[in-house]
Design brief:
461 residues, alpha/beta, six-stranded antiparallel β-sheet
């Protein structure tokens, strides 16, 4: 199982048998090797842990635990081990970040947990009284795969109590606290400050952090914040873009990079290259939704190039969900209906865009971080009245976010029209017809109901 996900952690590997549990880990070195080798343990070797992800507020959480607690490493993950030992897994809600953890004890204790948004993946399978966990479905033996299920975000699992929720992605109290028809200057400032704070928290680590820069609003805002952070510390941000030769994303990304003074890298791909990678990408993302696959192929090329320069990258994932950026949301004119759809999309992210974002990056030993999906940013966005996010015909989406960052970017970037990444990168045109042509109308009619729900079109099949 460990060997099958070796791509997720090419820098180090560790394993241990603890009572009737076995823990294995492949590691991407973001803090130095000596400080981050896993499995991690308490000083008395009674509890052991393997973890995937980052705890951004680990210093704050550490300060709230017993001051005589002995820490063996500088790893941000280690604080989760001591938090569970001292307070219990219910207190994992104190952690801000993205994570999947397994903890085993010499006395037979066992716990598995996943972050509230589901940014980091975790799967489980049960057969004949044995439970197995892994970061990817591919890790399980073929005869176990029919039993594999998604580990629910914001839950922990123990053998005695099964699944228990410790936190939610969407705050239960998220009704708007203000009723004004339009955002005030203070509202724009609060939106801006919350996103800036999230980006700053996610720049942590002992290695340089880059940014996926498509030239669209979301990634360009992340790059603008990160570029200022780097400049204040005497460094230059690295940005990365991908597309077909004349794609709009490449042109916009170059313009954004020049304005932000970043060290910019780009890769140009052809339709033939994209077609050759379809099988590998579908296996990597473990999904066959056409729009997801199109964007994943472009992201796969992007991650492959990026991994040659950095080990951590920030992305703009989540902004469309929080600030109603998708085209179909413009058809909604009822604020309550829009709010409900925003909540639904946030709660669905772990099985769609976040799954794609994690897999294509980790396939190359690259960690993707998502500042828009910081729980504080989510909480703020859902407190804001949904009427502020309505975009009736003839208006531009995400105006709340755009106006919050006026002065940070030139208007042609700040008010660039939205394109899906698979479209802006040129991937949709490059791949859709090539895939459709591999399935005849007769094959589609005969076989579309082999899956449930049925295939929607020839490209998907």
């Amino acid at each position: 199982m460990l060997e099958r996900i070796g791509h997720r952690g090419p820098d180090d590997r560790g394993e241990i048998q603890v009572a009737d549990a076995w823990l294995g880990h492949t590691r991407l070195s973001i803090v130095d090797v000596e400080s981050g080798h896993q499995p991690l343990s308490t000083s008395d070797k009674q509890l052991w842990m393997v973890g995937n992800g980052e705890v951004y507020n680990h210093e704050y959480v550490r300060a709230g635990l017993h001051h005589d607690t002995e820490y063996a490493t500088r790893s941000d993950n280690e604080v989760a081990l001591h938090l569970v030992r001292e307070k219990g897994p219910e207190h994992l809600t104190e952690l801000e970040g993205m994570f999947a953890f397994l903890i085993a004890g010499e006395g037979g204790y066992f716990m598995a947990a996943r972050d509230p948004v589901g940014i980091k993946p975790l799967y489980y399978a049960e057969s004949e009284g044995v439970m197995r966990f892994a970061s990817e479905m591919h890790s399980f033996e073929p005869d176990w795969r029919p039993y594999v299920q998604v580990f629910p975000p914001g839950h922990f699992w123990t053998p005695d109590d099964g699944f228990k929720r410790f936190a939610v992605a969407v705050p239960r109290q998220h009704s708007a606290r203000r009723r004004s028809d339009e955002p005030s200057d203070e509202d724009y400032e609060e939106t801006r400050d919350e996103l800036i704070g999230s980006v700053h928290r996610q720049m942590m680590g002992d290695v340089p952090v880059g940014v996926f820069l498509s030239g669209g609003l979301d990634s360009t805002l992340i790059a603008a914040i990160a570029a200022r952070w780097c400049k204040e510390r005497g460094t230059q941000l690295k940005t990365f873009a991908v597309g077909t030769e004349h794609s709009s994303d490449l042109a916009a990304a170059r313009q954004a990079s020049e304005y932000l003074d970043t060290e910019h890298h780009e890769r140009v791909f052809t339709g033939e290259e994209a077609e050759a990678y379809v099988a590998e990408v579908v296996r990597s993302i473990e999904h066959f939704d056409p729009s997801l696959v199109r964007s994943a192929i472009a992201n796969f090329f992007l991650a492959e190039m990026t991994a040659e320069h950095v080990k951590v990258v920030l992305t703009g994932e989540g902004a469309d969900e929080l600030f109603a950026g998708y085209e179909y949301l413009g058809d909604l004119d009822d604020p309550e209906e829009l709010h409900d759809e925003i909540v639904r999309t946030i709660e669905s992210l772990h099985n769609l865009n976040l799954q794609r974002a994690d897999r294509v990056t980790m396939a190359h030993g690259l960690e993707a971080r998502v500042p828009f999906l910081d729980r504080e940013v989510i909480a703020l966005a859902l407190r804001q009245p949904a009427r502020w996010k309505l975009s009736p015909p003839g208006t531009q989406e995400k105006m709340l976010l755009r106006k919050a960052f006026e002065g940070w970017l030139p208007d042609e970037l700040l008010y660039r029209d939205k394109e899906q990444f698979g479209d802006g990168s040129g991937m949709a045109d490059a791949i859709s017809h090539l895939m459709e042509d591999t399935v005849t109308e007769e094959e589609f009619a005969a076989e579309r109901e082999r899956v449930d729900p049925p295939f929607r079109n020839r490209e998907e099949m």
